[in-house]
Amino acid sequence: MEQTESGAAPPTLGIGMVGYAFMGAAHSQGWRTAGRVFDLPLLPVLAAVGGRDATAVRAAARRHGWAAAETDWRALIARDDVQLVDVCTPGDSHAEIAVAALEAGKHVLCEKPLANSVAEAETMTAAAEAAAERGQIAMVGFNYRRVPALSYARQLVADGRLGALRHVRVTYLQDWLVDPDFPLTWRLEREHAGSGALGDLGAHAVDLAQYLAGEPLVGVSALTETFVRKRPLLAGATAGGLGGGAASQAYGQVTVDDAALFTGRLASGALASFEATRMASGRKNALRLEINGERGSLAFDLERLNELSFHDHTEPAVTAGFRRILVTEPGHPYLEGWWPPGHTLGYEHTFAHQARDLVHAIASKTPPAPSFADGLQVQRVLAAVEESARNNAVYTPVHTPASTTARAALDTLAGTPARTPVDAPAGTPVRAPDDAPAGTPVPQARPN
Prior knowledge:
Helices cover 30% and strands 23% of the residues. By secondary structure, the chain is α/β, with parallel strands linked by helices.
C-alpha cells in the first residue's frame, strides 16, 4: 500500500458488513483491495461480518478476511471497532439496518436498490440527511458507475461532446430464470426483494441513465410480466438467490416480475428506453447502453467493459464513425492505481473503486455519490414503472422528491443542466419534442 506524504500509515476505518453471500463477497473484495491499490486517507480494516447462521458466517469471515463474525447485526453495529456499516442483505432489511447504523453514529454503505418501497427509501434518506448534519456519510452501492469506461462516458457527456441529448437506451439481460424448475429463492418473493428484474437489474439501468445524462427521469410508460408464476420451493439454502440449493417437490408462488419493459422522458425532453429481464436465454450479464446526442453518440457493453464506443458527429462524413476507445490509460478514471495501458480490469474492480470513493468522501466530509437521495430518486422511478404497468402502460409521472437534499440531488445529479436554464423561474416548462402528442406532460424547471 502507498504511504501518505509523511511516510506514516493513514488512520484506520473499521468496516462492519451485514450479509456475506454474492454481494458480501464482492464488497469484501473491494474493501480488501482498495487500500492496497489507491493512496487512501483512511485505511479500511475488515473488522466484522454479520449473518444469522453462525457456522456459515464464521466460514465467510475466514474466506474473505474478516477479523470477527457476528450473528446479530445490532451487535455488529454496536462494536467500537466498526465506524462504517456495509449493508449487503436482501432489500427487506435495508431500511432497518441502515437507519439503526446511522442513528448509532456510523457511516453507511447500502447495496442497491436502496429499499423495497418509496416509503422505506424516504425514511432512509431522511435519516441520512440528519446524519449528514453530524458529519456522517451514507452512500448507495450502484457499482456500475465505477466502471472506468462509464465514468469516462460521463465525462464526455458533461464536457458537451454529445451536445443536447436525444435518446438514452439501456438493456440489462440475464437468463438464470429461464428454466421453470429453477427454485423459488428470496429474489422471487416480493416481501424480500421488493420487485424482480425491475429492482434487481432495472435499478442499475435507471441509475446509469440518469447518471450519464446528468438529469432525472420525469415520467415512464411500462409493461411488466411474470412468465413462470410457480416454482419449486427450496429444500436448502441458496447462495444470494442466484443458484445453489436443491428444489423440493412443493411449489410456491412467484410474486415479482420476470421482465420489465418501459420508455421514459428525461427532464430535458430526451427520450429513454429500458428493458430488464432474467429470462433472455443465452444472456448472462448483458448490460448494454447507447446515448445519442446532436453532436455524437456513445455505446457500452458490460461484457466488453474496458471499451467505450464513441462517434463524433461533427467530423466529416467521409471519415466519421464509431471508434473503439480502450479505457486503460492512466488518465482514465481510476486507472492511476492499476496496470500499464492495455492490461484490462474486471467486474470486481468496481467494488474497489466504490470503496475508494466512499473513503475519500468520509475523509473530506463531502457528500457521496450516489447518495441515499439518489437511491430515493431511482426508487421513485421504479414505483412509477410499477404503477404504469398496473394501469396498462399509461404514462406515469415520477413524483417529485419532497426533501431539500433529494431535490438538490436531482439538480446536481451529474452536473449537466437541462435545456431550460438553471436560473429560469420556477414553473417554466422545459421544451417538449416538436412531435410530442397532445397532452404529453413536460417537466417543469426546478427552483434554484
